[in-house]
Amino acid sequence: MERLQKVMAHAGIASRRGSEKLIKEGRVQVNGKVVTEMGVNVSNKDSIKVNDIPITKEQTLYFVLNKPRGVISSVGDPKGRKTVVDFFNHIDQRVYPVGRLDYDTTGVLLLTNDGELTNQLTHPKYGIEKTYIAKVTGSIDKQAIKRLEDGLDIDDYKTLPAKARIMDVDKRKNKSMVELTIHEGKNHQVKKMLKTVGFPVEKLNRTQYGFLTTEGLQSGEWRELKSFEVNKLRQLVKDNA
After folding, report:
1. How many Å apart are CA 21 and CA 189, to the nearest integer?
2. For the segment 68-109, what is each residue's pLDDT rounded down to a tens digit?
3. Domain 129-209 fold
4. pTM of this prediction?
5. Of the residues 102, 114, 150, 239, which is catalytic?
6. Would you kindly state where each structural domain of the chain is located, as residue ranges?
7. Is residue 140 a contact partner of residue 165, using CB atoms and an 8 Å limit?
8. 102 an active-site residue?
9. ∠ CA(116), CA(83), CA(176), 5° rounding?
10. What is the topology classification, in CATH, of domain 62-124+211-240?
């Protein structure tokens, strides 16, 4: 037996929180009866409908993609540009990206149809670490690194303490390479942080998401996560709760 909202999330209907909203709105039926209360447990023998449409429990899938430049981190694009889900057209189940990488940002991107895990991994309170390597304009110094580590006021929020280190400085070309690890995932956050300390980003690559990397994957290549990796992601969420 599992909680109804958890089964709905695993079926790709919505995140767990989104599934709870559907239940409260009276849009979910179990064995022909409308359910509006939380805490209902269901089994594989129960018939579940959302908006009068039966749901089937999908096999949960988990992939890591080495996202190329010039690809949208979305399930679709009104401008017709290539999206990350286009790499998975051969799969019958619908998968979607966990969070986003900018159009011109490359690197580690997790895709799944596990709505509950997606909601947990992207929720700020769990603080999943994400590591980036940025090529920036200018010769970055220790003072800028300290500001990145201490937290910065950007837009209407202050970034949490981060990890930062200088990888290379080429004074002749006026370029630097910086490694930055953050816990949040706000829109364009890494680019905004580096711009705030005076070093605009020219290229950005996410090298690590939690413990996941793109090791062995060329740009545009992907692999399915092993079961122990999925369990490790769930444990990571649990440890950070």
Report:
1. 29
2. 999 999 988 889 899 999 999 988 888 999 999 999 999 999
3. Alpha-Beta Plaits (3.30.70)
4. 0.79
5. 102
6. 2-54, 62-124+211-240, 129-209
7. no
8. yes
9. 95
10. Alpha-Beta Plaits (3.30.70)
